[in-house]
Amino acid sequence: MAGNFEIFRDADKLYRFRLVDDRGGVLVTSAGYGQKGEAVTAITAVREHAAMGHIHDRSDPSARVPRVRQVRRRATA
Hints:
The protein is an alpha+beta fold and 77 residues long. It has a domain at 4-52: 2-Layer Sandwich (Double Stranded RNA Binding Domain). The protein has 1 helix and 3 strands; from the N terminus they run E-E-E-H. Strand 1 (4-9) and strand 2 form a beta hairpin. 18% of the residues lie in helices and 21% in strands. The longest helix is centred in the middle third of the chain and has 14 residues, at 36-49. The protein has a 3-stranded antiparallel sheet with strand order 1-2-3, with helices on one face.
């Protein structure tokens, strides 16, 4: 699935972007930006960081997402 970022202007004339899935569903809508370039910079940051982002569930203090341990392999000679 490849999503698309759409840049648009809201009723307050601020630039925003939304991430849309391949069926047209809106997955994320950004905060407002005064300059289009700021929205583009934010899209770039989302693209770079989202794939490696961890889930932090702050909706319920008793609900915890299990952490996945990374196993480091030892170099063999």
